[in-house]
Structure to design on (180 residues):
């Protein structure tokens, strides 16, 4: 009987240990805002108040189909109480380039994640994996943040180009057959 109770206790402790080790997951939908040049943008900003691993997922809505996408996200920079360490960031599985900057004693003072122009198809999902306040006890209160912008420019579908070409060809043929 004591062995069964001991095994149950160990199983409970192991389960609690796994629950606290799992990253914090947040998900939100961000509406894209039209810009003056016919494109769209999404402003992304998040502050983490507890240290530990996190996964933030943003569904970027408002643009359908194929788009030329680029963007930049950056951490606020600073000591561990303000620090976010990006592990990886992707949009629809395409990884953003990560660059870390050193300042004084801070090895990861500031980080920038950038995505050069990439052709992606909707729906657009931005996934950010990181660590807030790395090395601090889980009971600590922190203010670690990142922010940035993702930009979208719609690309006409190939079928649209094909239809336009057929219309031009038909107009050309029709103008040749007219008697003068």
């Amino acid at each position: 009987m004591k062995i069964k109770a001991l095994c149950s206790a160990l199983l409970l402790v192991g389960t609690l240990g796994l629950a606290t080790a799992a990253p914090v997951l947040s998900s939100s939908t961000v509406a894209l805002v039209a810009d003056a040049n016919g494109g769209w943008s999404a402003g992304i900003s998040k502050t983490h108040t507890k240290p530990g691993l996190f996964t933030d997922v943003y569904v970027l809505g408002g643009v359908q189909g194929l788009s030329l996408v680029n963007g930049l996200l950056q951490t606020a920079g600073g000591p561990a109480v303000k620090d976010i360490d990006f592990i990886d960031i992707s949009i629809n599985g395409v990884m953003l380039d990560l660059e870390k900057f050193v300042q004084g004693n801070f090895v990861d003072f500031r980080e920038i994640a950038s995505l050069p122009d990439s052709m992606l198809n909707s729906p657009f999902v931005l996934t950010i994996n990181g660590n807030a306040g790395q090395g601090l006890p889980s009971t600590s209160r922190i203010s670690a943040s990142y922010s940035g912008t993702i930009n979208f420019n719609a690309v006409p579908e190939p079928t649209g180009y094909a239809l336009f070409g057929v219309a031009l060809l038909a107009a050309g043929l029709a103008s040749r057959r007219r008697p003068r």
